């Protein structure tokens, strides 16, 4: 009987700073899942055109983005709605 291999789901977060010759650098964040692990939880790479930080984790939501406070989001939506309403009445 073949041995059953149990794989834990791997979560990935990649943060890259991409250097452009004629404009400001940009930061790109990529999140995903995978199964191929690295010996380190996080490691960096440094190339001539970008810097990268690659991290892996195994818990749910461990690679999540920053959250927005619901009260702040509601306030900003109300301001936007009021401005839109007033703007459309002109």
From TrEMBL:
It comes from the Eukaryota. GO terms for biological process: regulation of synaptic transmission, cholinergic; sleep. Keywords: Glycoprotein, Membrane, Signal, Transmembrane, Transmembrane helix. InterPro entries: QVR-like. The chain crosses the membrane at residues 71-88. It holds the Pfam family QVR. This is Jg3358 protein. It comes from Pararge aegeria aegeria. The lineage of its organism: Eukaryota, Metazoa, Ecdysozoa, Arthropoda, Hexapoda.
